[in-house]
Every structure is written in structure tokens, then in C-alpha cells.
Structure to design on (642 residues):
């Protein structure tokens, strides 16, 4: 799955930058951060858990089982997209599996997660809500309000900061007075800790502790999953704020490379099997992209659909 | 029944009917409501369904949206709609957009309610008329009752509605009394205006607090002092606006005056005017008049505050102008 996400994102990069660009709007790639989404999916119960996200949402959506064609079609603005071409890259939704969406406003998703956790607590499902944010979101006012509400009401919300070190182009050191972002979860009477977000086994083990807390009614957790994104903030960003050195060091800690090495080391896979998997995922993404490309644009009159759930005048039942 | 009792009775009945409905807001539970609207509800329903919040409007407004997206039916009380300015993103980007942006994957059955507009000497920060801010947002329903009966019937319908409803009350209306039908299921439709008084000379369109504060008095004064027989329309729902009822009235009277307490430029009445101007053009014998507040921040001083608002005199003058008498 990490490979699939990487292939998807790198293909997205190509499609966005090639002449006759098929992907419009803002587009934020997840390359380098895959272990976090995929580790989460390993713990996720689609029958009762929710995941709510910021705008860097391709990886989590694929990890929760979104068809790459539906994701790519959404990026292309096609009617077969997961949001029928009305959401785009920043707003991938898949309600059937509890994927409650990518949200475009930094920090705007945090109160929503508290509400989803509220429902889980109100209806006693034992479900948990994962909410993902970047290191930029910790400086929004909703961060304070949401952490406090979730802990005050003891809701099963797992706050995950995907700390890739830069909010767009502003390094954590220039945006957060406290640079240990796990500590930004202090003062709310909930556990808060740092996790190596590039090591999928660590992610599963550490996030698992938060899931256990949530499922057993002990309340929220706050995790800073420290990682690195290989691509710019969005497609227009050449990443001049990263040194070559930094990027080279990060490449060595590529979550996919690290995991492959572990599989080989423990003889859980052979190089041939890994190579074959790379080829298969490449083919899968190629096919999804070709299909999405051939898919139709929405009919123009579809723009009026899905604004409201009821007909008006509304006669209550 | 008092306006506040009508609101309470609507919420109570709907919470008895459907256990997915809950009430959340600042001081709604232990304090019994900042304006005693939810008095006794904590005792009746318990703290799982009547929930006090910290002063975190963005937090609990968004909490409500998230809960609505996942199957509950929240009633979120704002102590004042002026405070919604700090949680605009949750209402506009999340409540209103999430259904559309997800290609229809979610319903957002939530009611945001509270006191709107100018109360009494609360100065500029606490006196915002928010109707035009929300009524321009696709994905929202905006409701403004002007009587206790409407408060009950429209609130019950709003709670049952599967779309996000902005429900605009007024602190100054809460003690107002009026008869409320004693039916088990007293429900009023959303998106339907009410012809409150039939008349033949001019159509007056208003809603909510301005209707209760001055417009009804002005209509009586017009009849008594000027022999002008006004047809009075209570819009009740501001989005979607029931233009049919208003246009049918204009076809009869050929004259129209809109009254609200908003600022004129881009105000609620400007939006109503935009909806009427073209379809009513051939039926009008005079340009539509719009009586609104002065375009200044709301002053604290009582005489200044009164002076900025539409008065009976201003309404009477505007009506006489469109009637050419």
C-alpha cells in the first residue's frame, strides 16, 4: 500500500506538471509520509471508526481502500471521482469506510473530529476517530478548542500531527515557539508523545496505544508523527527551503526503503517479490490513470445537485 | 405562551421524539440557559443530552457539524449570533459545503440557534444582524420567526430537517407572548412565507425582530392615519426565500417596501430586492423601497441606537412615497 500511494502521488506529480495539465487547483502530495496513513489503516475498523483529514489526503484515502481510479478521477474533476468532481484533490471523501474527508482549511477539520468522537461516545460504538493535521495546524485556534473539548468530554479522538517540519514553507522553528510538537498536546490532560512517522511498525505499535485508550473510554490522545515530505507543499513549490543535505538524509529514511530492508533482513520477502510488487502497483496506477482520463466530465446540470438534502418548501414529516 | 417557552417546548418535544437530538451550548445546562430558554431541560434529559460547553464557539459549532455528519441531530445554541463570527469557517466551510464537496455523501441535520441582531445597548460587537451573511450561502437554510407560534412550529421543523438550519431569534422577543396552537404535532413548513395581514395598497415584506418591533405598529398607523391598506408578509424563511408569495402580493398591490434592521448595502433587504426586481418589474407602479438601519457600527447610547434603526415614522414615509401620497 505504501508503494501504491507513492506511485499514485508521483503519477499525480507527472499529470499535474505535464503540458495540457489535467489536474487543476491546489494539489498536495504525500510522498514520504506513507507509513503514517498505512499504519493507521492497519488499526482502522471501517465499521465504526472515522478518519478526518486536512488537505493532504490522497494517501489516507487510498490506505482506507479508495479505488485509485476514483481518487485520480476526482483529481481530474471527473464525474466518476469519489466526490463526483465537486471536491478535488483537497476534498476526497469515502463515507462508506468512515473516510470523512479531506478539508481545505488548515485546522478546520479538528472540531469535526471532536463531533465524530462525540457521536461514537454518545452511541457507545467503541469506535475511534483519527484526525490528521500538519504541523501548521497546531497554531490555529481550533487546535486549542478541539483538544480541550475532546479531553473535557473524554472522547475517543486521536489527534495526529504529521510533522514534516514545514508549514508550507515556514519551518517549525519559525512557526511554533515550542518545537517539540508533542508538547503542543500538553495542558489538556491527555497523553501526548512523539512517534517516528517513517517506521510503519512503530506507527502501528504507538497508534495502537491511542486506539486502545479510545476504545476503552479513556479519552483522546495526541501524537506527533515526525516525518518528511519529499515533494513541495503544493505543486508550485520548488522546496528552496530544504537543503540538498536534508533531502538526502530523508531519502535514507524513506519509509518504503526502510520497510523493504526490514522485510529482506527478516527474510519475509525476496528482492524479486518486492520488485514484482513495484511493477504491479505501477501497472495498477497506470490503469487507474488511463481509466480516469477516459472517464467523462460531470454533466453541466449536475452542478446543481447535492447542495441540499431536502426539497423546499420543506414539509416536515 | 412566551417566545422562550415556545422554543423550549419545541426542543423538548423533539428530544422526546428522537434520542439523536441533543442541545449543546454555553450555559444551556446547569445555568438553565443564559436567557432561560432551556430552563429545566437538564433535569429532564440529563447531562448526556443537555451539554454545557466552554467558551469555544468554533470548537462546539464544528463538534455539532461532525456529530451531524455521523448521524446525530444537534441543536447548537449561540448565546448571541454575534459570537458566530469566530466560528464562521465551521458554519460556512463545513456545515454548508460538506454535502456538496463530497458529492452528496453526507447530510448535515443541525440547527444553530440563538439571539440575533440588536438587543438593548450591547454596542457594536454584540449587536450583529447576521441574516444576510448566512442567507447568501448555498447549503444553508435561514429561518427567522416573529411570533411564539412561529418559534415553535419553525423550530420543530428545523430540527427534523436534514439540512443545516440557521435559526435567528432575538433576545428582545423572548418575553413576548402569543398563542401557540396546542397540537401534538404543530409544524410549520420551511421556505414558505406567511401573509400576515391582507391588504390592497402596498406589500410590506419583513421578518423576525423588525416585524415584531416596529413593522406591525407601522401597518396599523398606515391604516389609521393615512388610509393605506398594507398587505404584510412575514418572510419566515430567508433562504430559500418564498418569492412566489411575495410576487403574488405585488401583482395585487403594485407596490412594495422591505423592512429589516440590517445595513442596507448588501443587506438582507438588498438580497430580497434582487430576487424581486426583475420578476416584479412589470407589476410595479413605483420602485421598491428598502427601509434599513443606518450604515454605522451599532452605538451604545440608547438614543443613538434607536435612531439608527428603522422606526414607525421611517416605514410610514417609505410607504407613502411608493404610494405617492
Amino acid at each position: 500500500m505504501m508503494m501504491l500511494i507513492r506511485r499514485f502521488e508521483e503519477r499525480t506529480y507527472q499529470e499535474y506538471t505535464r503540458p495540457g495539465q489535467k489536474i487543476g487547483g491546489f494539489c498536495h502530495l504525500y510522498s514520504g509520509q506513507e507509513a503514517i496513513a498505512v499504519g493507521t489503516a492497519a488499526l482502522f475498523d471501517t465499521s465504526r471508526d472515522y478518519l478526518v483529514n486536512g488537505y493532504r489526503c490522497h494517501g489516507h484515502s487510498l490506505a482506507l481502500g479508495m479505488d485509485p481510479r476514483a481518487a485520480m478521477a476526482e483529481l481530474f474533476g471527473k464525474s466518476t471521482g469519489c466526490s463526483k468532481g465537486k471536491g478535488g484533490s483537497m476534498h476526497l471523501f469515502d463515507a462508506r469506510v468512515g473516510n470523512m474527508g479531506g478539508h481545505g482549511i488548515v485546522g478546520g477539520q479538528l472540531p469535526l473530529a471532536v463531533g465524530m468522537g462525540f457521536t461514537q461516545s454518545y452511541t457507545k460504538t467503541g469506535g475511534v476517530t483519527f484526525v490528521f493535521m500538519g504541523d501548521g495546524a497546531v497554531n490555529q485556534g481550533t487546535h486549542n478548542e478541539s483538544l480541550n473539548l475532546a479531553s473535557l468530554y473524554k472522547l475517543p479522538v486521536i489527534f495526529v500531527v504529521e510533522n514534516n517540519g514545514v508549514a508550507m514553507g515556514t519551518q517549525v522553528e519559525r512557526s511554533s515557539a515550542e518545537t517539540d510538537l508533542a508538547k503542543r498536546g500538553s495542558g489538556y490532560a491527555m497523553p501526548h508523545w512523539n512517534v517516528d512517522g517513517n517506521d510503519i511498525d512503530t506507527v502501528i505499535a504507538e497508534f495502537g496505544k491511542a486506539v486502545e485508550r479510545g476504545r476503552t473510554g479513556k479519552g483522546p490522545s495526541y501524537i506527533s508523527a515526525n516525518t518528511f515530505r519529499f515533494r513541495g507543499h503544493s505543486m508550485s513549490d520548488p522546496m528552496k527551503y530544504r537543503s540538498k543535505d536534508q533531502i538526502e538524509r530523508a531519502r535514507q529514511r524513506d519509509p518504503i526503503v526502510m520497510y523493504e530492508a526490514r522485510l529482506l533482513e527478516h527474510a519475509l520477502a525476496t528482492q524479486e517479490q518486492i520488485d514484482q510488487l513495484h511493477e504491479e502497483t505501477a501497472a495498477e496506477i497506470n490503469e487507474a490513470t488511463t481509466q480516469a482520463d477516459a472517464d467523462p466530465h460531470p454533466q453541466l446540470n449536475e452542478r446543481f445537485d447535492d447542495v441540499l438534502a431536502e426539497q423546499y418548501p420543506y414539509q416536515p414529516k | 405562551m412566551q417566545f422562550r417557552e415556545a422554543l423550549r417546548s419545541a426542543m423538548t418535544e423533539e428530544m422526546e421524539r428522537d434520542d439523536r437530538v441533543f442541545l449543546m451550548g454555553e450555559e444551556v445546562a446547569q445555568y438553565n440557559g443564559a436567557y432561560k430558554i432551556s430552563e429545566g431541560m437538564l433535569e429532564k434529559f440529563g447531562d448526556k443530552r443537555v451539554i454545557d460547553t466552554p467558551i469555544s464557539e468554533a470548537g462546539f459549532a464544528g463538534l455539532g457539524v461532525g456529530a451531524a455528519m455521523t448521524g446525530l441531530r444537534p441543536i447548537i445554541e449561540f448565546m448571541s449570533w454575534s459570537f458566530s463570527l469566530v466560528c464562521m469557517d465551521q458554519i460556512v466551510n463545513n456545515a454548508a459545503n460538506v454535502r456538496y464537496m463530497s458529492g452528496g455523501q453526507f447530510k448535515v441535520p443541525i440547527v444553530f440557534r440563538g439571539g440575533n441582531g440588536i438587543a438593548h445597548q450591547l454596542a457594536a460587537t454584540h449587536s450583529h444582524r447576521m441574516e444576510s451573511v448566512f442567507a447568501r450561502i448555498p447549503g444553508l437554510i435561514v429561518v427567522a420567526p416573529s411570533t411564539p407560534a412561529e418559534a415553535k412550529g419553525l423550530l420543530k421543523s428545523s430540527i427534523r430537517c436534514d439540512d443545516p438550519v440557521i435559526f435567528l431569534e432575538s433576545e428582545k422577543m423572548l418575553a413576548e407572548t402569543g398563542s401557540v396552537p396546542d397540537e401534538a404535532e404543530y409544524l410549520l413548513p420551511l421556505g414558505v412565507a406567511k401573509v400576515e395581514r391582507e391588504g390592497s395598497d402596498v406589500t410590506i415584506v419583513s421578518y423576525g425582530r423588525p416585524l415584531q418591533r416596529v413593522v406591525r405598529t407601522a401597518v396599523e398607523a398606515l391604516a389609521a392615519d393615512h388610509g393605506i391598506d398594507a398587505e404584510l408578509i412575514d418572510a419566515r424563511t430567508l433562504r430559500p426565500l418564498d418569492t412566489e408569495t411575495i410576487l403574488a402580493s405585488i401583482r395585487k398591490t403594485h407596490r412594495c417596501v422591505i423592512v429589516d434592521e440590517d445595513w442596507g448595502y448588501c443587506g438582507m433587504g438588498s438580497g430580497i430586492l434582487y430576487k424581486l426586481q426583475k420578476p416584479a418589474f412589470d407589476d410595479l407602479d413605483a420602485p421598491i423601497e428598502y427601509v434599513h438601519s443606518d450604515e454605522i457600527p451599532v452605538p451604545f447610547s440608547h438614543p443613538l441606537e434607536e435612531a439608527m434603526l428603522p422606526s414607525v415614522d421611517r416605514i410610514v414615509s417609505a410607504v407613502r412615497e411608493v404610494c405617492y401620497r
Summary: Chain A has a mean pLDDT of 95. The domain at 2-13+26-300 of chain A is CATH 3.40.50.970 (Rossmann fold). The longest strand of chain A covers residues 157-163.
